[in-house]
UniProtKB/TrEMBL annotation:
UniProt GO cellular component terms: nucleus
Localization per record: Nucleus
Names of required cofactors: a divalent metal cation
Protein name: DDE Tnp4 domain-containing protein
Organism per entry: Callosobruchus maculatus (Southern cowpea weevil)
Domain of life, per lineage: Eukaryota
Amino acid sequence: MTRFLSNLSPSIIKWPDQAGKNIIEQNFREKGFPGIIGAIDGCHIKIDKPSNDPDSYINRKGFYSIQMHAVCDHRRKIIDLFVGYPDSGYPLQKYVLTPYRDRGNLNRYQNNFNVKLSQNRYVIEHCFGILKQKFRQLYHVKLRDIPLIVHFIRAACVLHNIALDDEFVVDIDPSSIPNNPALPATADNDDYDNDDDDDDAVGIRDRIAHLL
């Protein structure tokens, strides 16, 4: 059943068509950030010591994990998914906006950009919180076979999307779900890899910052 659900992912976890993009963009626009069709983040999934190549799955915090990278829309529906090695960051790219690195010298446009980004990015953190509450095994997947772990995580994401589309209600502990953060996002954490920033994307981000 796990592999069956996982193999449904291409038809359940998919990039929106143009009509869908327009709806998503409008919802993010109403929250103060136009031109966005998804929020991206990575989530560590704790696992038992893998049977093959275990050292590759020790994360920066010293425990075995695999990372789920996902993009979700305004409804917290997952529209893109990758499950892979435990640690990686997001460089600034033309189609992936990251915060300005805050060294205490940001101008008001850059600070406002970081605040707006944080206020809209929280949906992916909320998505992960809901996902783990629905499927508690994601707090610690007690499997050692990496391909099976990937199938298990992907299957959970498929069921998450199906439940959203069917408006299936699940009892969730509100305290486990991140709230909309009051503080702006910054690039001073492991989520962002500024060393590989795209020069063209820097200009795009600056232009967007002045439009917000």
